[in-house]
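Appendix B, record 7
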Amino acid sequence: MAKKTNEHTPKLLVRQATPADVPALVELTGRVYTPEWGHSAEMLRSQQTHFPEGQFVVEYEGRLAGYCATFRIDEATALAPHTWMQITGGGMASRHKPDGNWLYGMEVVVHPDFRGMRIGQRLYQARKRLCTDLKLRGIVFGGRIPGLAKNFSRYGSAEAYVQAVVEGKRRDQTLSFQLGNEFELIGLLRGYVQGDYESLGYAAHLVWRNPRLLNQPDIPSIPSPQHLPDSVRVASVQYLQRRISSFEEFATQVEYFTNIAADYSADFVTFPELITLQLLSIENEELSPVDSIRTLSQYTPQVKELFSRLAVHYNINIIAGSHPTEMDAGEIHNVCYVCLRDGSIHERAKIHPTPSERTVWNIIGGNSAATVQTDCGPIGVMICYDAEFPEVARHLTDQGALILFVPFCTDVREGYLRVRYCSQARAIENQCYVVLSGNVGNLPGVNNFDIQYGQSCILTPSDFPFARDGIAADSTPNIETVLFADLRLENLARARNSGAVQNLKDRRFDLYETRWARKPDSGA
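Structure tokens (predicted):
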């Protein structure tokens, strides 16, 4: 039976640093740089005093996992040659200019215990959000080049080594990461930090230019309680079902695709409906369909822990397909676990089980369709057959959803096309994006899950700002693959406010309405 945990509680939090964090930050910087070279309490307090909005920490389960310091600076100073001590005022951020049109990144520190969790990436993202919120020109800083000293003899100069990294011929632990985060090299800074022997005192002079300054004016914004990113990258996994011998083997396959999506800087990755039926091949026992599903439900704690851990570790929001889950009242629901990169878990049950799910597996439908608030705005989940009911998508859109995720599982092409055509209709009538992810391959011996037909896709409204055929990305049927698409939220605003058709605006509220009854769920 599914046990309730601390649902919706973030494990990981990116927040503004406070004076109470200072002792822990002194310890953190001292551990990373040695106590002699770490930041003093005076430096940290000064940074917060000059520009509190620019000081961020990452907190994971109550511990500080990372920290970055930022201040505003004028363009002439930021882009001219300088050293770290000069431009930061000795680490005090005392050269902060309230009217400066660039952000200067003076420090990023990641606790050694939390490396591999993309803590640095999260801090860079926080800086970028701050930069766009303040409508500044961009971010500039001097970045370490830790591979320079040991490779200097091979390349002969710092310039040649850095050029090799920029061209992808050489990987540098820090510089390659920064280039991968959309920073542009504009030169080298000599004598930047005298004690940085690995970099021979050099730093890469890097900038990130605010893309929002290039936007056309007077584009209506999308109402939201939080600032929305300009573009959201989504990944859809077309997953091959194959026999496995252990839960660890399943976890390895899922982690592989999560890692791939994260390496391509996706904000979301979605897996197919009933992806976990693969687990029934472990025991390879002859079970009745109902017993199979109840056996599968015993994996619920492991499934939730796996996807939540991967979401935090790889800094990506995961739509974890769906998994048959036994509720507190003993009913079986087909549940999608939405695991966010802050560590929170959200559960969304399939509302409309298919006739086969009801009669063969005794699966019961859920009673609500609520959006999930993410760092990329509110999203909605419709599990397969749910996409064939326009009321569900409209209800989610009315709550503010901009992207709808549809994990699906279909056995033949006719079934797949029903989900596909209806999902395309949902994208058009709600002027939103719809992401489909399905299974392919076969699992002989698993009841009611013998064959699969899938063609995952990422769909858009049909209007001028979008792809010509309303398809942002499409897959070849019945092969294992991953799709990616960058979805511009601003294009939805354009379509909804000034498109050739304006479906959401033009509804006849005076003529018809849809009312959702308030029915309690049996508890997920």
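Remarks on this record: Confidence is low (pLDDT under 50) at residues 215-225. The domain at 231-498 is CATH 3.60.110.10 (Nitrilase/N-carbamoyl-D-aminoacid amidohydrolase).
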